[in-house]
Amino acid sequence: MTRLLLSLVMVISLTGCATQNVSTRTGAKHGAYYFLYEGHKNILSLGVDARFHYRYSAPAKQDSAPYSYERSGRYVIEGTELWLEEELPDGTFCRAEQPMWIVWWGERCYLVQPWRRTEFIVSAITHRWPKDRGGRRLPVDLREPRETKEGWMYLHEGDWLLPVAGKPIVPSGKAPKQVSTPTSETVAAHLCGR
């Protein structure tokens, strides 16, 4: 499975990316972001006061009851990265191990989790989705760009109704780049910031 994904990563690349002037697109939109699939709900809300609130819920299964939890804290935007810092019971904050990417695609704003970066890029370039960790292909409606609330990336509330224009602008090192036609180089190089 890992070799298959790595092979896919090696075939589809971003070396043809062009630096994009994104001075008006350096932050994230405030409000709710949705990451919903198969009854699981992940909703991340970003407030204007630099605070976040996260809610997760999973449906009941045959042998278990519904499950949910919530987290809150503050967020920090550093260029094209969003860092979540969960507030602990003692009032201190614990920063996430890796930031989410803030990705603008036309007027749409996505927050891409670190473990979903490759899938997002592959989906954006080819309009296909690689197999998930269990070897399943995802349904068409979970690929990006999407037209509903359902999807595997955090998308700002209502942005699924906005038309997609151009290619998504993704972080590469410290300079945002616009995804363009894939070449035979590597997505891995792009994801490593080279």
Summarize the structure.
The protein is built from 3 helices and 12 strands. It is mostly beta strands.
Strand content: 35-45%
Main pleated sheet: 8 strands, antiparallel, barrel
Identify low-pLDDT runs.
Answer: 1-24, 181-194
Instruction: Report the structural category.
Output: mainly beta
| Cα Rg | 17 Å
Helix content: 10-25%
Number of strands: 12
Question: What oligomeric state do these chains adopt?
Answer: single chain
How do the SSEs run, as a string of H and E? HEEEEEEEEEHEEEH
Shape: globular
Strand order across the biggest sheet? 2-3-4-5-6-8-9-10
**What is the mean predicted local confidence, pLDDT?**
74
Total helical elements: 3
Can you describe this structure?
The protein is mainly beta. 13% of the residues lie in helices and 35% in strands. It has 3 helices and 12 strands, in the order αβββββββββαβββα. The protein has an 8-stranded antiparallel beta barrel with strand order 2-3-4-5-6-8-9-10. The protein has a 3-stranded antiparallel sheet with strand order 1-12-11, with no helix packed on it. The longest helix has 10 residues. The N terminus and C terminus are likely disordered.
Key attributes of the depicted protein:
disordered N terminus, 3 helices, disordered C terminus, mainly beta
